[in-house]
Amino acid sequence: MSNHLQDTVTLHNGVKMPWFGLGVFKVEEGPELVNAVKTAIVKGYRSIDTAAIYGNEEGVGEGIRQGLKEAGLSREDIFVTSKVWNADLGYEETLAAYETSLQKLGLEYLDLYLIHWPVEGKYKAAWKALETLYKEEKVRAVGVSNFQIHHLEDLMKDTDVKPVINQVEYHPRLTQKELHAFCQKHDIQLEAWSPLMQGELLDNDVLKEIAEKHGKSVAQIILRWDLQNGVVTIPKSTKEHRIVENSSVFDFELDAEDVSKIDGLNQNHRVGPDPDNFDF
């Protein structure tokens, strides 16, 4: 389990990935984005997660460059993730999309490249492209996002390279225990997007009680729960005090009763699309 902001999990291909990072979903291009990414790196974050569809890879790249310079770090010190969008899920299209993402980010490689959604009939061709990128050492690791068990089973029937990551919606209202167990069995690391349920959980009485017990915020309780469940997490914020607060989750531990209470909040409720019923 992670005990420090810069602690890492070793993925099944040997690459080390930080347990904790910054997500930038719905953060528009501009100074706020650049400053958020820079601030996160300066404050100790070592993982940044973006995607082609977010439309903000250029700003993320600029924030990375400024953050590395201010923190006195090199490119190898951080872990950068992006994702191929649904419209580019073909073999040649995915290869081209990867190069476009690199160009926008201003990077020579990505640490992790993901298929964003399991579009039926398209994700296997895209995965072949990710395998090519990985085998040619253009990306350090490849994975998927929003894949359910049947998607993973289908994908792994025909692969030379197994996904290292499955990034999914994950929070106390959507604990996805069966999917998590499947991923653990197959050595695929689960990663949480929308870990704070887009703010919907911040007024929950059970979480507020646990937060008061530990002298922490509700957000910190949820993020700590992620980590103790062995789930990589990437909360989003553009405000410096929130970026710092979100990462201040390594000086306490939830006990078994806390974890049980949080697990009990599950309702299999999504705030994002259902991967099996999503109009792509």
From TrEMBL:
<dbReference type="GO" id="GO:0016491">
    <property type="term" value="F:oxidoreductase activity"/>
</dbReference>
<dbReference type="InterPro" id="IPR018170">
    <property type="entry name" value="Aldo/ket_reductase_CS"/>
</dbReference>
<feature type="domain" description="NADP-dependent oxidoreductase">
    <location>
        <begin position="31"/>
        <end position="266"/>
    </location>
</feature>
<feature type="site" description="Lowers pKa of active site Tyr">
    <location>
        <position position="83"/>
    </location>
</feature>
<dbReference type="InterPro" id="IPR036812">
    <property type="entry name" value="NAD(P)_OxRdtase_dom_sf"/>
</dbReference>
<comment type="similarity">
    <text>Belongs to the aldo/keto reductase family.</text>
</comment>
<keyword id="KW-0560">Oxidoreductase</keyword>
<dbReference type="InterPro" id="IPR044500">
    <property type="entry name" value="AKR5G"/>
</dbReference>
<protein>
    <recommendedName>
        <fullName>NADP-dependent oxidoreductase domain-containing protein</fullName>
    </recommendedName>
</protein>
<dbReference type="InterPro" id="IPR023210">
    <property type="entry name" value="NADP_OxRdtase_dom"/>
</dbReference>
<dbReference type="Pfam" id="PF00248">
    <property type="entry name" value="Aldo_ket_red"/>
</dbReference>
<dbReference type="InterPro" id="IPR020471">
    <property type="entry name" value="AKR"/>
</dbReference>
<feature type="active site" description="Proton donor">
    <location>
        <position position="54"/>
    </location>
</feature>
<feature type="binding site">
    <location>
        <position position="116"/>
    </location>
    <ligand>
        <name>substrate</name>
    </ligand>
</feature>
